[in-house]
Amino acid sequence: MKTNIFKTGITLCLIGIFISCSLISTAGTNSFLKQKKEIQNQDTSYIVIKGKVVDNKSNKPLVFANIYLLGTNIATVSNSDGDFIIKIPREKKNSKIVFSFIGYKDKAILINSFRDKKNKVRLESTSIQLSKIQIRPEYPLYPGKLIKKALSKISTNYSETPNLLTGFYRETVKKNRHYVAVSEGVLKIYEPPYNRLSNDLIKLIKGRKSRDVKRMDTINFKVQGGPYSTLLIDVVKNTDVLFPPNFLDYFDFKFVNITEINERINYVIAFDQILIDTGPVYTGKIYLDVETLAFSAIEFSLNPEYADRVASRMVKRKPLFMKITLGSANYYVNYKENNGKWYLNYVRGEVVFKCKWKKKLFRSKYTTMSELAVTDRTEQNAIKFNRKEIISPRDVFVEKVSYFKPDKFWGYYNYIKPDESIETAVKKLNRKFKKN
Fold this sequence. Notes:
With about 425 residues, the protein is mainly β. The chain is about 10% helix and about 40% strand. The chain has a domain at about 15-25 and about 145-435. Strand 18 (about 320-340) and strand 19 form a beta hairpin. It is globular, with a radius of gyration of 22 Å.
């Protein structure tokens, strides 16, 4: 049996750990103050709406809920606290914002109904009667056949033309419970058609970062590949990640439920990878649109029992006397339908490493997270970028951006609102800047 049939690129591989004794530079102080003054003089032409998305009954936050301006491709997602921020062109002030979440009813709200702050959007869970669903012959005994048929329909369900995406990318590194690095940026992404074997191209529009080298205890933890590695989580485009030839021989599929996503009925199919000699072993869930058999969302993880198999492949460089083990790796991607075609909407990956010096008693846990939300999309002028404009898959993203700027730094671009812990970390760093 072949043992190299599964890609490991999506597992945020090419993570480099380096010995470093450098301190945070204060060179960003003057540019920080200059940028703040420039922003105060800007005349905004957009409306900013902030709030929280929660379950109607439990009041618990709904994490990574989809939020978009009706009739447009302007969108964002809620953060891990359920909080969101979305910027709307002022000429669209009479439109509606739609909120959606897996297993909940969509909710559309007029823009002029929102207050300046403390908006709470409550979504109601939905239940679906199986008697009202047109059941395919393959359901529920042969879910693997449904997956195979869905793969055969990718070329017709997903975009057949190039797209130019505007996306917001965030990358964080956390040591134990504390953030030691936050970097984020607005990107332009040339996305080729799904029916062609061609690579995405990424151009950085603007970005910012914070790093606490001192808290790293002389370990400079860097992630190489950045948004390119995150885009590999787009399993529909990179099918070999989970669905190589003869994938039915390597997975057990099980129908578990039917749910609603963006007011469309979806099959929920769980899968477990059959153990192979070497390489990653995955487990997760697939959400298939009943009507079109398009992949609405995929969530999957490395089986923790076999996570140590790929740890050595994911670490590019490390100190000689340090032992690194892989704690967990979790991934999520979803897509949104528009006029009969499906498009990438949001991707997220989180990997946990445990690092221990051979002659020290205690170990440190490092959690790397990357997420990318598509905040706008167009097929107009979707042409490849000049090679000199793009960032490289070999680049370390944190090294491509400057130190943190004020919140209004993004201008009219949409972004994912930082969760409370990230905001706290950034405020501490900004106070350091102001003292210098």
